[in-house]
Write a structure and sequence with these properties.
alpha+beta, 6 strands, 137 residues, NE0471 N-terminal domain-like
Length: 137
């Protein structure tokens, strides 16, 4: 078993600025949606300083990637059109997010986006009053 870590050979942003495609030297190619990258940003704002501090970020369904900035030879800073720009996406982090997406893991894209969308819906839900059923006639 090799301890060699996958290394990106190409990082490409689509014209719509909604998908970041990363190709690794292992031959794997992954398309990562902007919304997923935003809600799973490795920034302290999203991840906190430990697992118990992780924030669920909602309302990012329409977020786009405004730009990409290389950081040394180990990461890329993804600039989002909502102003978020503090996450440094290391190659290892991107590869792990991509693998979790394709494996169907609970921490993958669908689960992250569902949690973020649920949080948004909860914040925007109308307040409703439901009378106790035992008093209805």
């Amino acid at each position: 078993m090799s301890d060699r870590r996958p290394w990106p050979t190409e990082v490409r942003l689509d014209k719509a600025k909604t998908t970041l495609t990363v190709t690794f030297d292992s031959g794997e190619t992954f398309g990562l949606p902007a919304e997923y990258l935003r809600v799973e940003s490795p920034s302290a704002e999203v991840q906190g300083h430990g697992p118990a501090q992780k924030q669920v970020v909602g309302g990012k369904r329409s977020v786009k990637i405004a730009g990409l900035e290389p950081v040394g030879n180990y990461a890329v800073r993804v600039l989002f059109d909502d102003g978020h720009d503090t996450g440094l996406f290391s190659w290892d982090y991107l590869h792990a997010r991509a693998e979790s997406e394709t494996s169907g893991a609970v921490t993958g894209t669908a689960a992250s986006l569902a949690a973020a969308r649920d949080a948004t819906a909860a914040r925007h839900a109308e307040t409703a009053f439901h009378p106790p059923l035992d008093r209805l006639g």
